[in-house]
Design goal:
Elements: E1 4-10, H1 14-28, E2 32-37, H2 44-54, E3 58-62, H3 69-79, E4 84-87, H4 99-105, E5 111-115, E6 122-123, H5 127-144, E7 156-159, H6 174-185, E8 190-194, E9 196-197, H7 211-230
Parallel strand pairs: 1-2, 1-4, 2-3, 5-8, 6-9
Antiparallel strand pairs: 4-7, 5-7
Helix pairs in contact: 1-2, 5-7, 6-7
């Protein structure tokens, strides 16, 4: 069986992180769990430190002078040792039960992503988020290729050798669009695994707190897609 690394990029997820770590340990028993924390004011890192003292396969990367989702995932990948690398959000919008499905999909693929918009997937967040997300992903599919329906998923499993050829970079969620587009261009085989995305139950959202903020994110995503398309 392949060694599995699960990466959790965190910022103010104290209310969720312990339950998340213990949940993924129970479901997939990973070789290692790496939490990359950007010096969370709520001391998420302290909870992880306490868990790391109990479990040898939990590792904390504490970043004081560096912030950002894409770079956190990248730092986690660089530090990882698993044959398979998984990363996901820490707000329980992505069900832990879907992680084994992503991993199983790698038996015939290089990358597997959780998809809200492929057949069988659902997005149960508030209406404004669903509409803006669906609009953007439809736009991305039209320009970058209809073989994928969820370019902004952020719920990913990939084989180790993928990262010999691809880097994770970009501003916030745009990194996922860039990563999947470059993976397709290099011929990596990508599977979409349906899952149901649910609203955050605890903690504060990092995506957008208002419709104007959602529109700003949408604009940034759109510019990223256009740059890739013209490129």
């Amino acid at each position: 069986m392949s060694n599995i690394t699960v990466i959790f990029p965190t910022y103010n997820e104290r209310e969720n992180i312990e339950k998340l770590i213990l949940g993924v340990k129970e479901i997939v028993n990973p070789y290692e769990i790496i939490v990359v924390d950007d010096n969370s004011p709520d001391e998420t890192w302290r909870v992880v430190q306490e868990l790391a003292a109990q479990y040898s396969n939990i590792k904390l990367i504490m970043r004081v002078n560096k912030r950002g989702l894409a770079s956190a995932i990248s730092d986690g990948i660089v530090s990882s040792k698993g044959d398979i690398v998984v990363w996901m959000d820490c707000d329980f919008s992505m069900p832990l039960e879907a992680v084994p499905k992503l991993i199983n999909a790698l038996s015939e693929n290089d990358i597997a992503i959780g998809s809200r918009y492929v057949e069988g997937g659902r997005d149960e967040r508030e209406f404004s988020r669903v509409i803006t997300s669906k609009f953007f992903n439809t736009f991305a599919s039209l320009l970058l290729g209809r073989s994928l329906t969820d370019y902004t998923t952020g719920f990913v499993a990939a084989k180790r050798d993928v990262f010999d050829n691809l880097d994770i970079y970009g501003v916030y969620g745009e990194y996922c669009v860039i990563f999947l587009y470059n993976a397709k261009k290099q011929g990596f085989k990508i599977a979409e695994v349906p899952y149901t995305c649910i609203p955050r139950n605890q903690g504060e959202t990092k995506t957008a707190e208002s419709i104007l903020a959602l529109l700003r994110h949408g604009r940034n995503y759109g510019m990223t897609v256009l740059k890739l398309w013209f490129k």
